[in-house]
Design a protein that fits this description.
With 336 residues, the chain is mostly helical. The chain has 2 domains: 211 residues, 3-Layer(aba) Sandwich (Rossmann fold), CATH 3.40.50; 92 residues, Tyrosyl-Transfer RNA Synthetase (Orthogonal Bundle), CATH 1.10.240. The chain contains 14 helices and 5 strands. Helix 4 packs across helix 8 and helix 8 crosses helix 9. It is globular. The structure holds adenosine-5'-tetraphosphate. The site of adenosine-5'-tetraphosphate (AQP) has 24 residues, from strand 1 and helix 1.
Length: 336
């Protein structure tokens, strides 16, 4: 491995098919960052079970997320790719952080409120302390930077609060105060059916999202059916304010084409959505098609993927075990 000074950690839950949101908000940025940071990428299966997962499906979904990372361009020779449950330190440090984080902090987490919905009494305790586990994921490796989508910003702030409180409580500067890296033109990709809701793997509507496993026709159909409004496309990005669905499609177009949303508004401004959607469908297929194909090929190579995850977890343990040992010392756990 190359000798980097700064380390990134980031993860994806194997809670369904990878979406365009996961790709643009996270994985695509990781591909670029792996060249300049020591990189640790995790399939966060412990997070996934905070809501019900069928065990047989979870195993294959874990492989599929790993395959999606590799097919997108993450290099398993240069980066660490593993699934969280193979490194017990995540759960162990999360317990310590459950004792550092305050109830008041967790009560403010909007993701818990959104996911638990009205049925909060029936939500798992794991869903409530999810952000403590996320802090553990990051700090178990003393990661200096975490590339995530906009939706994870609040959890990242909590990670910083936990690191700060741990350091203050124990009179140390042991944990770094991790910086978020929220990059690109589509840091929050919204549902294709509702421009105010995040595009999500677990949205019950298949038409709300583009999956990395979707074929060409499915992508084209979902984009054609994507909700818009009756106004023509605005000539400036500012002109799309208050039109969340149109703005979302514009941001997706910009991110996929590596262009500024402003320039695309100038190009399509004044027209209806038909030609724009046709071009966006073509663009999506040209960017995602090769990834989908490679992902499918890799998903058939279960032994290869399992080996990468095994080797990745061994490398992850080599980094994390001494850090966890130091934490035990700092906290005052007797080690014989
Ligand atoms: N819609 C999105 N736009 C931009 N970034 C996104 N991410 C997720 N959705 C979007 C980013 O993808 C990374 C992995 O996310 P995750 O799988 O750990 O959990 P999530 O954010 O809860 O994603 P989903 O798809 O909504 O999963 P479910 O439905 O299971 O909850 C993160 O960096 C995230 O920011």
């Amino acid at each position: 491995m190359t000798d980097f000074k700064q380390r990134i950690f980031s993860g994806v839950q194997p809670s369904g098919n990878l979406t365009l949101g996961n790709y643009l908000g996270a994985i695509r940025n990781w591909v670029t960052l792996q060249k300049t940071y020591e990189s640790i990428f995790c399939v966060v299966d412990l997070h996934a079970i905070t809501v019900w997962q069928d065990p047989a499906i979870l195993r294959d979904a874990t492989r599929e997320v790993a395959a999606g990372m590799i097919a997108s361009g993450i290099d398993p020779k240069e980066c660490i790719i593993f699934n969280q449950s193979q490194v017990p330190g995540h759960a162990e440090l999360a317990w310590i952080f459950n004792c550092v984080a305050r109830m008041g902090w967790l009560n403010r987490m909007t993701q818990f409120k959104e996911k638990a919905g009205k049925n909060r009494e029936r939500a798992s305790v794991g869903l409530y302390v999810y952000p403590d586990l996320m802090a553990a994921d990051i700090l178990l490796y003393k990661a200096t930077h975490v590339p995530v989508g906009e939706d994870q910003k609040q959890h990242l702030e909590l990670t910083r609060d936990i690191a700060q409180k741990f350091n203050n409580d124990y009179g140390t500067d042991f944990f770094p105060i991790t910086e978020p890296l929220i990059l690109g033109e589509a840091t929050r990709v919204m549902s294709l059916r509702d421009g105010n809701a995040k595009m999500s793997k677990s949205d019950p509507s298949e038409n709300s999202r583009i999956n990395l496993t979707d074929d060409r026709d499915t992508i084209a159909r979902k984009i054609r059916k994507a909700k818009t409004d009756s106004e023509p496309i605005a000539t400036t990005l500012e002109g799309l304010e208050g039109r969340p669905e149109a703005k979302n499609l514009m941001n997706i177009f910009a991110a996929l084409s590596d262009r500024r949303a402003e320039d695309i508004c100038a190009e399509y401004g004044g027209q209806g959505f038909a030609a724009f959607k046709r071009d966006l469908a073509e663009l999506s297929v040209s960017v995602l098609g090769p990834i989908t194909e490679e992902m499918k090929r890799l998903c058939d190579e279960k032994t290869y993927i399992d080996q990468i995850l095994k080797e990745g977890s061994e490398k992850a343990r080599i980094i994390s075990e001494p850090i966890l040992k130091d934490v035990h010392n700092i906290v005052g756990f007797l080690q014989s």
